[in-house]
Write a structure and sequence with these properties.
The protein is mostly beta strands. The protein contains two helices and 15 strands.
């Protein structure tokens, strides 16, 4: 009874991490830290069988289900990948930029903040020039060399159309550029992944003894129901999942709740 008694008389004081592993080869897919809250909801359907005067004779129980939810204190790309079903990528990532650059009467070129990417000869997506003192703005097309009504681009520098010579004004430029980074996609045809998940917690009893708790979810099915509240205070990363019956490994278990007392 000593080991069974260890399950009694303490409370969970913190959720430390949530670890997610591949169900095929045990690769660690993500570790969620700074967990602000997490819940594990267990439910079942029941119906009473009644006799004379509608007196309950016994209860039929079926359709056990387990679902979970919570939030992390920071944004996790690996969690996003589990939720959307996409694989994260790293390397050269494309970004979009819009710049408005002033030029004076002596200028024939302007320099962009970034190096535009894309097809050579068509790197600039849009360029619009507004001349000081004029009510209209003119959009110009890119060419291999600047002309009266065309501009050219090379190595981060735009050569203005020759008809802007000796004039001052501003240029609106829209282009894409690349940086070393990482990305997670969210495509319409991909859905949340299923993992072998461990929720790691710490607990304490009335004698201030520390316990380690691990909730093992054999088949954790992540879904894409999450909302980012952008702006203001720090953005949290919410998540939802279901615990599915693990019939593929010969067990009907949803989860196991395990505990041991840590050494002083």
């Amino acid at each position: 009874m000593a080991n069974i008694a260890m399950l009694e008389g303490w409370t969970i004081t913190s959720v430390e991490t949530i670890e997610n592993y591949s169900r095929t080869d045990d690769t660690c897919l993500s570790i969620l830290d700074e967990i602000k809250n997490v819940s594990l909801e267990n439910s079942e359907d029941s119906s009473d069988v009644t006799g004379k005067n509608d007196q309950a004779l016994f209860t039929l129980k079926k359709n056990k289900a387990v679902s979970g939810s919570g939030s992390s204190g920071y944004i996790s790309g690996n969690l996003m990948a589990l939720q959307t079903g996409s694989d994260p990528v790293a390397g050269k990532i494309e970004f979009r930029k819009r710049e408005v650059i002033k030029f004076d009467t002596s200028a024939t070129t302007i320099t962009l903040a970034e190096t535009a990417s894309g097809t050579a000869g068509a790197e600039i997506l849009k360029l619009i020039v507004t001349i000081d003192g004029e009510d209209t703005s003119t959009e110009y097309k890119q060419a291999t060399a600047a002309e009266a009504d065309k501009f050219s681009y090379a190595a981060g520098v735009i050569t203005l159309p020759t008809e802007t010579k000796s004039k001052s004004g501003s240029v609106e430029v829209i282009y894409n550029y690349e940086k070393d980074g990482a990305s997670v996609g969210n495509k319409s045809g991909t859905y949340g992944k299923t993992t072998h998940t461990f929720i790691n917690c710490l607990g304490k009893n009335i004698c201030d003894e520390i316990y380690f708790i691990q909730i093992e979810i054999y088949r954790c099915d992540w879904n894409a129901n999450f909302t980012f509240e952008l702006g203001g205070d720090g953005v949290e990363h919410p998540f939802e999942f279901k615990s599915l019956v693990d019939k593929c490994h010969g067990d009907d278990g949803f989860w196991s709740f395990k505990v041991y007392k840590k050494a002083a």
